[in-house]
Design a protein that fits this description.
Radius of gyration: 17 Å
Distance between the termini: 34 Å
Structural class: mainly beta
Shape: globular
Largest sheet: 12 strands, antiparallel, barrel
Helix content: under 10%
Strand content: 35-45%
Number of helices: 2
Length: 219
């Protein structure tokens, strides 16, 4: 599938759009509107795997470029210009699939933790997101619950009050009969959630349940 079939505004020689602003919760930008992003599971760089993410106007807003021979235990989410926004690291020596998410490229004081859920009794839960700082008794406060099916690109992120704050959905083809497949899908983020955080959760779902799981190395 050529790049023009996803979005036409990003030439292969450029990472596009200065002035594209990332909506942050409480930032006052389109506060009442959901952000609808198109996620393409492909890096624009040769010899890299990753993601390329566009806004509703076709402007590049996020990038993930993982070199094939690079560290599979660390993933950096960048803006269109290549500035690191969040760094995702696999938690060392832990039982299960556990990841930590840090601000920028820092390596201390994670913003939040994400743990893959073991589905028992038909539970729809895929992963649980908890705060970076443990509360009294060593337990972390739950921030979000992710439910659904990532392989079908049908997931919802719920906050602590069971309010849906983000969704992953299949992207409808613009032309009849054109199938985009599972590598191109929509990420819909409500104003209550930061868009970089929502994209970080997409990356982690792919590590846990997608094709990236087969390439991931335990550290």
């Amino acid at each position: 599938m050529g790049m023009t079939k996803v979005y036409p505004n990003v030439p292969s020689s450029s990472f596009g759009s200065e002035g594209v602003k990332l909506r942050l919760a409480g930032g006052g930008q389109d506060a009442d509107a959901a952000a609808v992003l198109t996620v393409w599971k492909k890096s624009l760089l040769l010899n890299c795997t990753g993601f390329t993410v566009f806004d509703g106007k076709g402007n590049l807003v996020f990038r993930v470029d993982n070199y094939v021979a690079g560290n599979k235990g660390e993933i950096v989410l960048m803006d269109a210009a290549g500035k690191p926004l969040l760094t995702i690291r696999r938690k060392r020596l832990s039982l299960g699939d556990n990841w930590m998410v840090y601000d920028g490229e820092t390596a201390a004081n994670p913003m939040f933790h994400v743990r893959k859920q073991t589905n028992l009794m038909g539970s729809k839960s895929l992963a649980r997101v908890s705060g970076g700082c443990a509360a009294a008794g060593g337990r972390r406060n739950a921030m979000y619950e992710i439910e659904g099916s990532y392989s079908r690109r049908s997931c919802a992120v719920y906050d602590g009050t069971r309010r849906c704050v983000a969704e992953i959905k299949r992207k409808e083809a613009a032309a009849a009969g054109v199938a985009l497949g599972v590598d191109v899908f929509r990420l819909i983020v409500q104003p209550e959630m930061d868009t970089p955080v929502a994209m970080a959760l997409v990356i982690l779902l792919d590590q846990m349940y997608g094709s990236s799981k087969r390439l991931s190395l335990s550290l």
